[in-house]
Task: inverse folding
RNA sequence: GGGCGGGUAGCUCAGUUGGGAGAGCAUCGGCCUUACAAGCCGAGGGUCACAGGUUCAAGCCCUGUUCCGCCUACCA
């Protein structure tokens, strides 16, 4: 394509829009149903109500990196996108909308309300999908699914029916977590515990027949109207002689029995526990053990029921205050002590959850959990990083039945019907017409809907067409990896494991990669209330998607949270710009017109040292990136690329190759330089593409000799000797020598404040013939990059009377500085250097003086240390000599 | 209460079988050298939280202490 002169700085906005449209139009994200090898990922479906936040950005970026990488590797990639219907959240939004128009959902009626929700979904439910596209997400959008769409709803019904028939779903009266604001039951997982500084109230429950009584301790005095017993531990010696008669419930006069149960802690509080089976999970268990009645004193709106007598109708928290006052007034309150305890809150609306006795649907989860545990134990699914495996086991092993019914309207209505005549319950895929028991034709469907997580638990196979046996399913299930944050490990991952194994007889994913949370720059969780949220779209606007993505990848070290700040993104925008300019430079020298000079097989060229060095480094970075991505080490891959592009390719190779490119070394070297430049840039763009798709696509199209999208190209081969790309340790060590010498001379320049414009001379002295030869052969590079006018190298150098010195391994560099040298500064320089060397030398000598080290350490380590000692001694010797010499001259003057 | 992770340069963090303490940013000094000032060259800076132990050798392994963060939990 065109290699018109590029702009001096990279401008992301047009580029991003243009290429994303191009990719979609060319259907480059599409997965094919019957080709192999296949690689698949299902997206963690964002809530349809959601707006893009940092968590999504990280999650999507990682998946996109993997998918783009796999496509380049030649895999048939399916990245399945979609959204989640988010029952409670969506219903809340639409209800609020209706409220602003002045009516409630009850006024509208269920059917009309559902229509309104679908309407909302059509209008504004897809916002997040477009935001994912801004990130560059290469999902197969034609396959986008929604947990409430027809196919997935069919899957939900089938699963419900089958589990019911297998006895794994049941309906029962049980104490559940009730959110009075949302008006629905929620599962244990949806309750967030928060430490609250409250009080522990000691209340006297008088004996019925004699003076005194039992003092109970409670944090929730308002529940006392539901008390149906007081429990004490049978082993509690304080209570061995209490009367066997009842105690009197204060404020009501009701009599309740005293029971004995080992559950009660002797040392806690007063050792006497009030039992409220309808409003406390533990009390519920104790209550059923002792056949106690349950009395509901708080209704579904959080208001006191008529059982609370004169407190009926009060809000539960107002009631608490009123009850406290009454108990104090009437002398029953014996003590109030400050007490900090954990209180459950609804994870959606933060309302204090009310444990409430209620008839609900549950999944009997233990049998499924056991299989999900063993699948991980057997390695059928790997959890990465491994630390999460333990968390997974802990939770799975202590799992309790899952309350799946929700008293809301938006969601999958439970496919259960009750006969109006005989009360027979029918659970079926299709709406039954009459009762199979009594033939009655009036049936009422269960009004509850299912927990949203119930449908997302089926996501890996329901999105692929199940219950139909589709090609898609056969080709892409189980998926290759699930990429997700640990916050939904239990909500979602664990449940997908159970459902996948149960209904597909196969785990839903081979790997689970659990990534970190994105926090603000102070390590705090981003939240609207704290006001520390960074909006990804704002970041993208300002710095470009590529810079943002690269930042996320570079900071995504396993097992550690990411602290995000715009400052960091800015740093990586510079990197994107660096790539842009390096490419600009390459394309200044390789134009469409000169492209026929490029030789693809580098073996056919006469390569210079920097040529051989950079392709050896390229080989290494290709290997490293591939290995890192295979192991989900995104930060290593990004870091390795950063270092290679900036500090090897740009800092050294591009500078070293300039003379050849300017034709100063003849036609042969020009061809070699062009060919190597082209190869390195070509391969580097491919390596970078998964991380920064937009800029690489743009540059790819501008690079002569490419055709089509970079997405359709091939990842540089990891095999040996491709295009003559080989590991070349000899060139690497020679190049290291050259760069060390250059750095040495630059150091003299910098520390002595010698203007860059002043050309210097340098002499390299070494007794090693290799070194002398290398310096003589590649002196041009040193001359160029160190700003020299002359350079010589030999085994013996007549030391110039006034010169600065630099010592590298095996050689000494003299830079004559007649009239320029500042003796004091030079002495300071040398002393500083000598100091550093001596410190190192001391530790090494100490080691070698230790017999235990010599006899017990492995020989290759000992050799290494011996070699090091030699190098250090030699350097030290040279430095000392030069210091001595320059001090002499200085003293003469 | 139980569990997990972390404490390494001023800041943010790498450090993969124990064997020379690193990067980016920030700081300081010098440069508009024709790819890039969103740049180039150079420099300074760390008792690897603390105390023990294992080892020839510990940032890394073991024990304890301490601080921070998170998850989890049916002692009201």
Result:
């Amino acid at each position: 394509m065109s290699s018109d002169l590029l702009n001096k700085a990279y401008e992301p906005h047009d580029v991003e829009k243009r290429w994303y449209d191009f990719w979609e139009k060319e259907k480059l994200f599409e997965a094919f149903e019957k080709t192999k090898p296949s690689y698949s990922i299902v997206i963690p479906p964002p809530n349809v109500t959601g707006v893009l936040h940092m968590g999504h950005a990280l999650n999507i970026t990682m998946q996109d990196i993997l998918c783009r990488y796999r496509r380049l590797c030649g895999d048939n990639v399916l990245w399945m996108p979609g959204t989640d219907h988010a029952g409670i959240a969506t219903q809340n939004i639409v209800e609020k909308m209706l409220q602003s128009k002045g009516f409630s959902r009850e006024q509208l009626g269920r059917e009309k309300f559902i229509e309104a929700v679908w309407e909302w979904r059509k209008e504004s439910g897809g916002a997040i999908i477009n935001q994912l596209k801004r990130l560059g997400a290469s999902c197969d959008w034609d396959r986008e699914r929604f947990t409430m769409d027809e196919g997935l709803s069919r899957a939900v019904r089938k699963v419900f029916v089958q589990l019911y028939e297998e006895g794994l779903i049941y309906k029962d009266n049980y104490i559940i977590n009730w959110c009075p604001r949302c008006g629905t039951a929620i599962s244990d997982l949806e309750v967030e515990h928060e430490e609250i500084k409250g009080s522990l109230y000691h209340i006297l429950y008088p004996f019925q027949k004699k003076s005194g009584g039992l003092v109970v301790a409670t944090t929730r005095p308002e529940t006392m109207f539901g008390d149906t017993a007081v429990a004490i531990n049978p082993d509690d010696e304080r209570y061995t002689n209490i009367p066997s008669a009842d105690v009197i419930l204060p404020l009501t006069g009701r009599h309740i029995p005293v029971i004995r149960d080992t559950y009660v802690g002797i040392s806690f509080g007063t050792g006497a526990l009030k039992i409220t089976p309808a409003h406390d999970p533990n009390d519920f268990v104790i209550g059923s053990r002792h056949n106690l009645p349950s009395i509901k004193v708080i209704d579904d709106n959080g208001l006191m029921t008529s059982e609370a007598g004169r407190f009926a109708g009060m809000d539960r928290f107002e009631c608490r205050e009123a009850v406290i006052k009454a108990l104090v007034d009437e002398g029953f309150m014996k003590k109030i002590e400050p007490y900090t305890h954990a209180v459950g809150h609804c994870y959606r609306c933060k309302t204090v959850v009310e444990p409430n006795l209620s008839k609900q649907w549950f999944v009997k989860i233990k049998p499924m959990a056991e299989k999900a545990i063993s699948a991980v134990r057997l390695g059928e699914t790997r959890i990465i990083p491994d630390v999460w495996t333990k968390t997974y086991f802990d939770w799975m092993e202590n799992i309790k039945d899952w309350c799946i019914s929700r008293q809301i309207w938006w969601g999958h209505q439970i496919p259960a019907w009750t006969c109006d005549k005989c009360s027979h319950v029918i659970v079926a895929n299709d709406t039954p017409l009459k009762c199979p028991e009594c033939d009655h034709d009036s049936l009422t469907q269960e009004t509850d809907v299912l927990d949203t997580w119930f449908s997302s638990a089926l996501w890996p196979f329901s999105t692929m067409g199940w219950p139909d046996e589709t090609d898609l399913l056969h080709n892409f299930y189980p998926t290759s990896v699930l990429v997700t944050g640990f916050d939904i490990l239990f909500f979602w991952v664990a449940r997908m494991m159970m459902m996948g194994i149960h209904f597909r007889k196969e785990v839903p994913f081979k790997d689970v990669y659990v990534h970190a949370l994105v926090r603000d720059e102070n390590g705090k969780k981003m939240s609207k209330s704290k006001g520390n949220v960074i909006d990804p779209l704002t970041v993208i606007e300002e710095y470009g998607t590529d810079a943002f993505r690269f930042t996320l990848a570079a900071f995504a070290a396993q097992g550690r949270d990411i602290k995000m700040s715009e400052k960091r993104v800015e740093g990586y925008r510079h990197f994107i710009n660096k790539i842009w300019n390096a490419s600009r430079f390459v394309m200044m020298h390789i134009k469409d017109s000169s492209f026929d000079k490029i030789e693809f097989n580098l073996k056919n060229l006469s390569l210079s040292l920097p040529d051989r060095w950079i392709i050896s480094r390229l080989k290494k970075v290709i290997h490293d990136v591939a290995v890192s991505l295979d192991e989900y080490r995104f930060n290593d891959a990004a870091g390795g690329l950063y270092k290679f592009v900036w500090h090897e390719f740009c800092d050294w190779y591009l500078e070293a190759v300039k003379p050849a490119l300017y034709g100063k070394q003849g036609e042969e070297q020009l061809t070699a330089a062009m060919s190597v430049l082209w190869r390195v840039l070509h391969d580097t763009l491919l390596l970078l593409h998964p991380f920064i798709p937009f800029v690489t696509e743009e540059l790819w199209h501008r690079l002569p000799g490419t055709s089509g999208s970079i997405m359709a190209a091939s990842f540089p081969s990891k095999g040996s000797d491709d295009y003559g790309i080989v590991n070349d340790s000899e060139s690497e060590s020679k190049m290291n020598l050259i760069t060390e010498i250059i750095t040495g001379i630059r150091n003299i320049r910098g520390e002595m404040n010698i203007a860059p414009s002043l050309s210097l001379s340098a002499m390299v002295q070494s007794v090693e013939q290799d070194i002398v030869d290398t310096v003589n052969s590649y002196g041009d590079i040193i001359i160029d990059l160190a700003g020299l006018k002359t350079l010589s190298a030999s085994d013996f150098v007549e030391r110039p009377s006034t010169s600065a010195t630099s010592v590298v391994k095996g050689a000494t560099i003299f830079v004559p500085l007649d009239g320029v040298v500042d003796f004091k500064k030079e002495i300071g320089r040398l002393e500083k250097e000598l100091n550093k060397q001596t410190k190192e030398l001391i530790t090494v000598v100490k080691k070698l003086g230790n017999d235990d080290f010599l006899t017990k350490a492995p020989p290759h380590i000992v050799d290494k240390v011996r070699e090091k000692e030699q190098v250090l001694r030699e350097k030290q010797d040279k430095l000392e000599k030069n210091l001595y010499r320059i001090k002499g001259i200085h003293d003469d003057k």
